[in-house]
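queue> holo job accepted (flavin-adenine dinucleotide)
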Amino acid sequence: MEFDVAIVGAGPAGAYAAFELARRGARVAILDGSHPREKPCGGGITGRALTLAAAAIGDSPLASCRIRTARFINADPDYSEVVDLDSASNKLPKLVVMARADFDARLLASAREAGATFIPERVVDVAVESTSVRVETARRTRCRAAFIVGADGANSLVRRRLARPFSRAQLSIATGYFVDGVTSDQIVIELTATPPGYIWSFPRPGHLAIGICAQADSRVTSKALRRRTEDWIAATQLAESAALRAYSWPIPSLDADSLAALELSGPRWALVGDAAGLVDPITREGIYFGLRSAQLLSDALVDEGAGRYATSVRGDIISELERAARFKSAFFQPRFTKLLLRGLRESAAIRAVIVDLIAGQQSYATLRSRLIKTLNVPLAWRMLVQGAWRV
Ligand SMILES: Cc1cc2nc3c(=O)[nH]c(=O)nc-3n(C[C@H](O)[C@H](O)[C@H](O)COP(=O)(O)OP(=O)(O)OC[C@H]3O[C@@H](n4cnc5c(N)ncnc54)[C@H](O)[C@@H]3O)c2cc1C
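queue> job finished
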């Protein structure tokens, strides 16, 4: 079988690249042996991701929870601040939460309707040869393509074969539980200093996805994280006596130096989404960056030549992720999060900034100037100083 492009992995990044390329006339193969499947993920899809992929998502409704509010809590049992995410003036939701089985299946169906050939098999080998790329699956299907796209997630085989695998220091491990039979229209977030990050509850249709994340090279074990999540579920009373299903999964979480040195493409190959390492190290939003990198790659392959892809990703995505990475250690310090929570309580302007950050509508490039412009100048100023701002 001969194709213009072979895409390994049919998550959001791979399926959206297949959709964009096939509808512009490329002969596309997309290979993934895992569907139908649920991916361990919060499933939070921001307004900007929904807008970007609107043509592939289509008009028929997908089962989702439209999130009306975000509740911030901290270790103090009395602290709880609820922020409205869904004011009447918003036509588009700021955030919806979906089962990844549904969202990914919809994107893959659209790619197939656009003309992509789906090969439901796991890829076990890829090799770039002088005039084409060879791809082989676990069921010994072989195909050739002029170009290969690695969209096969954090443990990417394409990355391991054609570039370098992520080191443990470049990954974080998310651990938690799906809570069956409980749902809500509210996300719950507790910012934590150790490990630096947050514990979340994201409601999906029919269940909650609850979890916590830590760098893979930190001394915190998955067992300890799971215990922490169990204690949190008990303290927040979010799950009562519901059944818990455990999950654990890696997320690329690169520091600024690693982001600056990322290998994104080479002769006849490119990486998109998690395989490329494109996840916000603070919010861990990855779906938008997977979709956006797929779009940039499709534009480069169709219009400008593959060489343009890495430059586009650096300007459009990596510069923003680098700012987040530089800010991360200060962001989760208790001195800063305390002020942030105070800001949520006291200042409508700071609440608006946080809402936009959750919705992916607030860039790190303009976060500083926007905070300074809030009416609560003394508080914003202390946040900037405590945040040791270098973004
Ligand atoms: C617990 C957790 C919570 C998260 N919450 C959020 C959130 O709420 N919002 C958000 O935006 N992001 C979130 N993320 C990040 C998000 O899940 C990823 O960034 C996103 O899924 C990346 O999409 P992708 O298409 O690049 O990779 P993936 O979604 O990982 O898809 C990769 C696909 O490749 C396939 N594959 C792998 N190896 C092979 C192979 N050898 N051959 C063929 N196919 C292969 C896999 O089966 C999979 O279908 C979360 C991540 C985790 C772990």
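queue> The first strand starts at residue 2 and ends at 8.
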